[in-house]
Hints:
heterodimer, A: alpha+beta, Alpha-Beta Plaits, 4 helices, B: alpha/beta, Rossmann fold, 6-stranded parallel sheet, 20 strands
Amino acid sequence: MGKHIFSILVDNKPGVMTRVSSMFTRRGFNIDTLTVGETESPEFSRMTVSMTGDDYSKDQVVKQLSKLHDVKQVQVMERDETVTRELLLIKVKNDSATRQDVLAAVDVFRSKIVDYSPDALCIELTGETTKLNAFIELVKPFGIMEICRTGIVALERGSNCLRKF
Amino acid sequence: MKLSGSQIIIEVLIEQGCDCIFGYPGGQVINIYDALYEYQDRIKHVLTAHEQGASHAADGYARSTGKTGVVLATSGPGATNLVTGIATAYLDSVPMVAITGNVPCSLLGRDSFQEVDICGITLPITKHNYIVKDISELADTLREAFLLARSGRPGPVLVDIPKNVQVAVTEFTNKPVAPSLPVPVAEEASLEAAAKLIAESKKPYIYCGGGVISSGAGAEIAKLADIIDAPIGCSMMGISSVPFSNPRFLGMQGMHGHYASSMAQAEADLVICAGARFSDRATGNKEVYVRNCKIIHIDIDAAELDKNITANVGIAGDIRATVSKLVTMVEKKQNTEWNAQIEKFKIDEAAALKETDAMTPYDIVDAVNEKMPENAVIVTDVGQHQMWVAQRYRFEQSRKFISSGGLGTMGFGLGAAIGSYEATKDPVVLFTGDGSFGMNLNELATAVSYNIPVIVVVMNNGVLGMVRQWQTLFFDRHYSSTTLDKRQTKFTKIAEAFGALGFSAVNTDELSKALDEAVASKRPCVIDCAVSADEFVLPMLPPGGSIDTIITHIGG
């Protein structure tokens, strides 16, 4: 079992995300994260899906996605050749007893306070998934009120692009 | 020229070579039916008794010819009634275009009368589906639906058309039919690897699936078998890939396969699989399945390679094109010992057949086989009768065995028989059981309306035999809900009530006479044949079992 990341170029049309995500469900593959957004061309959207599974699952996901009419390109993003990022917004209790420790953590992780209220701090952090997880663990004792994560986005290093046509 | 959406739909159907469609009218397709009225000289519409029957008819039309079948239904219940038919076509890779009407765009998403999200419902059972919300996209969307349905591995495509799009008017010009989308071409290296495995093997076995029939590759497969001196078996979908009379043909393998082909598969050192997906019904226990042998897997759909079984060599490509190349790359072989072993399996298989006085299911199949010409289309429903036909009928031509394999749809047969007849005008026989026939016998009304001389042979054993067989073997004979003895159904009277002819037969003489009369009548006929409830489909590999656990006899 391993973590796999797929970059998928799809037609920018209604219902495409359902087609892609339903393929995962009905064939028994579990999506860990899914992001979708417009690309450099308004015709296409780019989806990034991360999944935990064995090599069989990875192989089947690529083949089954390639069969979908709206899917134009599928690529497995190899860890060493890929830049991945995720965005975290996290709301932590603002308490005079712990405030200094929270601010220190924010500083060390190079994250940002994006909202400050008497009883809550909203912090923004970007990075690889492991970094986000470490930050969450660190601030857990201070009282996490709410978490929102975007899921992974990924680009291949170097000049290669997903779109091959 | 300026045409309405409804007229454009019919124009595109005709443009795509469709001469007959199956369907049922309703509120959201009245406009399309108005166009059908206008175009009735150029396209035939067959009105069925139920939309499910129409979907199976479009399926039968496609299976018996290779052309794309078309079914038309209204929104809501009309559309949902197609679902079983679409899934049946999807699981057996049958080219089909399903057209549904829907409420006007302004009423979509408001739970309007007879509104369902049929695109959502059919998402996992179509190759692709569309809802057309703009008249300017209608013609090209329908063309693309036909293109996708027939390209590569065929399958069903659904086009949902809201009523306002059927009514809107736009400019229309015909276009030539687009060539099918490109398919993968076998890589030279894989072909060489396959040729090497063949050269090394001493006991090769060729396993044909439905893909051999879709691709029209029967002759190439037979040629390969001759060169490498290999026996040929098949999955149920692969029946009629090669003629039954081909001496190398051993019949269907798998759960209810022939003893000889199942044994040959188990003993082979190389299985060359063409156009099949190694379904659990065809292989049994997969670990045991591969224990002795290497596997070459050829399929037009790359996603089938390494899906159910890991092949030593996987080749993505059209079967006919691939096997034509492969035959030029292999050396002539002679496997004398292997052939002797195969002959022994055949002798053992023949010896296992027991003679009885009562009319057996095989007697019924044989009687029909003797009376019907080679070009007869033989359709089945699902259950024991289906397996008896699959095992026994001597198919000489491809596309003459029409049966629901992957989905195993009881009630498939009568609709499919009607569609097959409309497509081919060849004699049509439907083998069914009292269970399956009970599901969709309403289509007798269609057969009578269009004077379709289908001969329905009901193997009537008063039980749901296939489930009962499992109950006998694996559930201590707890015949839970499989005994139909409280039903008072008289199939002969049902036939007469629908305006068809009814016959009954308790022995082969009566059956022979009934068949003669049925053929001579040129009308839809039902022959109710008495079969013992204790007839079992044998041999049987228990689910998930292997050749070591094959059941060839069920005692007292």
